[in-house]
Design a protein that fits this description.
This protein has 11 helices and 10 strands. It is an alpha/beta fold and 254 residues long.
Amino acid sequence: MTEANDDAVVTEVDGNVLLITLNRPKARNAINSAMVAGLLAAVARLEEEPGLRVGVLAGNGPTFCAGMDLKEFAATGVPTGLFDFLSRGSTKPLIAAVEGHVLGGGLELALTCDLITAGEDATFGIPEAKVGLLAAGGALIRLPRRIPPAVAMELALTGQAISAADAHGYGLVNRVAPSGGALAAAKALAAAISVNAPLSLIASKAIIVEGQGRSEAEGWEIQRAHVPAVFKSGDAREGARAFKEKRRPEWSGR
């Protein structure tokens, strides 16, 4: 069942997966205040409902997101809450399913996610320098961590875009699908994730994210903080029992 958080964002629950759809196709899903409010509400729901384990972020129409709504930006500035969403994302896994032009703020939305699937015709870029702006929503921080820094520098300084094939080759995109197939690929990836233990997913994501750019010794310290909650959980005992009994585990998230 599809439920409207706001006209600009709609959500749909599919088992343990929350599908979050950017819903401004006539504006190529450009980011405005209504969309930001809808994204914040959707992620809050993903975080708060224990039955939801993975989020998939997609766009309605042929374009995932063309970036900031420049008309609204010129009138009122950056939408309230945008940087909160871009900087925090979700503690649960998020997958971006992208098609068409994934530019500027649109790419930064995708970079807020942990995994990206893309239609083969998708293009990725941060053209802000061409309009006197700056990719201040995380791209200049996250891109050099996910692709070679020299490539990130070229994207930022030229404003030119790269193809889905190149983005996959650089490690930015996890899976490339036929044009129009990014959402199906994301759903398949979400299904493979959502069968696993909720606490394990959250902790694994946190350790990888928090450990980026740290030394191995620092990584062990980061991991140490997350181990007790997982290893002492009821789900850890359930996983062992299910393995012994040769059945599918029934996770409680506790």
